Model the fold of this input.
Amino acid sequence: LITGGSRGLGFYMAKKFRDDGAKVIITGRKKENLEKAKKELGTGIDIYQLDMKEIDKFPDFINSLFDKYGHIDCLINNAGISLHEQDIKNVDKEKFENQISTNLEGAYFLAKEYIENIEERKILGNLIFISSERGAQCDFLPYGLTKVALNSLTEGLSRKFYRDGIRVNAVA
Done:
């Protein structure tokens, strides 16, 4: 399961996994982007419209996927945005909240639902957060702050759940 899988890095991960024989599920906000990706990627790809800011939909969404597929081997929290403000003076409340809710809050709560399903079903799982080099340094822009937080979240979840068979990693 790859969030933000209709374009960019998510699209190319989906292509590689599909080429290696995996059944791939991609999500995205825009139906037209998902349909275009499905057409380009072809068989082995399922698409679902999901906005990472709509966390109230995550429980039903994740439960329905586990019910349909039986197992989701890996959740790749890839969806994210950067508004490239360049300076703190260019950040307003809306830009800040948009990036925090998409990049951090959405990833956090989707991971929570995934972990709960893995534990409930007593199966193994893999959780990957897509981070950035910005996550390894101090930052003052919302995008960088979300990546720093994702790196901390990754380490915290990894320490908490590795004994339960849930591997948690981040890729920058």
